[in-house]
Each structure stands twice: as structure tokens, then as C-alpha cells.
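Friendly challenge for the regulars: who can give me the C-alpha cells for this chain first? No prize, just bragging rights.
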Amino acid sequence: MRFDFKDDSYIKDFAEFWFGFTPYFYQMEFLNACLTRNRVAAKWCRQAGKSQSVAIYSLFRVLSERCQILITAPTQSQSKELYEKIRQMSNDNPIILEYIIKSTETEMKFKNGSRILSLPCGPEGKSIRGYTADVVIVEEAGIMKDSIVNTVIIPMIASKKEHGQIIKIGTPLTKNHFYVSIFEDTNYFVSNVTWRECIKADSYSQQFVDEQKMNLLDIQFRTEYEAEFIEGLASFFEIDVLNYSDQFDYKLISLDT
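First reply, four minutes later:
Bragging rights claimed.
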């Protein structure tokens, strides 16, 4: 079966029927963008259902058509966390499980030829160089080097012509490719989810938000729950220094760790 990706009712029905879950309005906006746009950048506050949304979209694609999906992040633990969400949802559904012919800690293969692969890009992108994909999901895009995205990730979809898709998700920490995709590149659909959307959808409580405002520094709250770009939070160095240091072997620590 091949779905008409312009009709988002299919993926809503897919989520409800196969997983007993009705996506929040902001998740539907993101899913619809993934179905209709080849470039999507999502900066969401914490625990808003990002992994669940990406997992639903990934499974929808691989089950409805032959599709190659690559999930990558700076480290294996970061890419594996999202991949494990997809794998868990598959394993919990006996019907979907029947369509899987291979399931390891880094790779899933399906009877229709689809594949989901999870790999770290590492400091230089050598571990993912040479792969081809229909969809590349860049996890923790805010800390992934521009050089890796431009010279390794983007070429992965070159042979797909106008159908190759890049989905960037994370927190914008420096003025790198992710920042540009969100604020400057009009080719990208931007999905911005803050605590306000979560309150409206009832996925957060006001009590929780008030508690976080009280316990976190203002700069922390604005980054974690406003999904706001704030210079200086990622490290002790200014943004320009971080951009310059791209030629060195430096490490940025994700806010998730």
C-alpha cells in the first residue's frame, strides 16, 4: 500500500489504530510537515513528545512504502535513544513485528525492503560517510558540526533528487546549520514547541511549569522550555569562538546528558 502523503488523516489514523495514541495538535503539525515538506527543523521543549512523533513518522514511512531512514547524532547514545523508541513501538505491536526481518541495536529491516539505521556521526562524520537514504533524521542538530552536515549528510540524499528529506531536531545552541535552518533558510518548515503549546495540549501542567521556573535559572528555563536560542549557554566560550574551533577536535556536551 502507498499512502497519499498530502492527506494527514492517514498518519493520524495510523497512530490511533496501531498505537492507541492520538497526536497532540502540535505533533500533527510536525507530522503533516514531515509528510509534505522535504526540509523540516524542529526545536521543541523537553518531554513534549518529540521522540514519539519521529517514531510514528518513521514507522509510517517504512511500512507504507520502501524507504531507507538513517538516524544520526554526534554520539551513538544520542542516536540510539530515538532509534530505541522506534524499536520499542515496533516490538510492542505483534502485527508490525511480523513485517520485521531483522532487528538489532542499530538496524531494522522490513519485508518490503525498508530499513532504519542508527549511527553516530562522530567528530568528523567518518562513520556515516557513503550511506544513502531517503530520509535523514539529525538528532541533537544543535551540536552537530556544519562540516559534517554539508559534506556528509546532505550528499546522502543527492540521488533522491527532489524526494530526499532532511529532518533536524534539537536545541539551537550555536549559530550553526541548525540555527540557520530555523531562522534563515526559507526551505525549512520550522516546528517550534514551547511549554505554552504543551499547556494548551494538556501534555504539561501549569504546576509543573511553575515548579521549573522556580528551580531553574532563567537562562536554563528559556532554553529547556521556551526552546529559545541563547548565546553563551552551551559553553563558557562565545559563539564566534565555537564556530572558529570547528577546525579543532572539540566536544560539546548535550543538555540531555
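The first helix runs from residue 9 to 19. The chain has one domain: 9-247. Your move, everyone else.
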